[in-house]
Amino acid sequence: MTTPFQRVHLIVMDSVGIGEAPDAKNFNDEGSHTLKHTLEGFDQKLPYLEQLGLGNIDALPVVGAVAHPKAYYTKLSEASVGKDTMTGHWEMMGLNIMQPFKVYPNGFPQELIDEIERITGRKVVVNRPASGTQVIDEWGEHQMKTGDLIVYTSADPVLQIAAHEEIIPLEELYDICEKVRELTKDPKYLVGRVIARPYVGEPGHFTRTSNRHDYALKPFGPTVMNTLKDHDYDVIAIGKINDIFDGEGVTEAVRTKSNMDGMDQLMQIVQKDFKG
Question: Which domains does the chain have, with CATH numbers?
């Protein structure tokens, strides 16, 4: 049997939506169209995406429809229940999630916070949904003075822990996140990811570093990546993909520092001779 391709490079543009999904009302996302709204007022052309057929999917500013697109194009909706990072990526690899992860719009239960404080020996502050950059602006100096853990969440089923690298060294922060990951595997919490969010700098000038680390649950079943790996194909994960799948089905993990670094790493891998 011959295969049509020896290699497939799958690029995921995270959060680049092209219109509301059928279940948008369940997530207060009615009327959403991230790509269209981003391109409104955009004064540059996107000729390559246009030639591939992006503008044939939906009417978009600066990206028109073409008569003979150079690629196949379509618009898909998730079959899984949920819209978070893990649910979407797992489904792309053939694993549907019918029991959604839990989100915490009012913060995490006090029972969980108490357990985190007990196992880490550190006090927890914030415990609510927050912007990652805003929360360190507001609480970063407090964290430096006290050594407390800045714990927050978002619209996704994530528990994020921020700490200044000079106050809580990376290895300690990672160890804390691993312990919290074990706590939140309990079905009553069902948190998708625990994320270490280290930052540096002085009050008023804090910046998050590239030393972020995600601690995800293992996929609930085998994925296409497992099948490929089991049949001796290479599965190279760039950026946070290895974390999202907790290393399952991955043969090589490539860490990245930014979106641009991710594309640079991809261009290097494209030059390699491999099958997968």
Answer: 110-216 (3.30.70.1250)
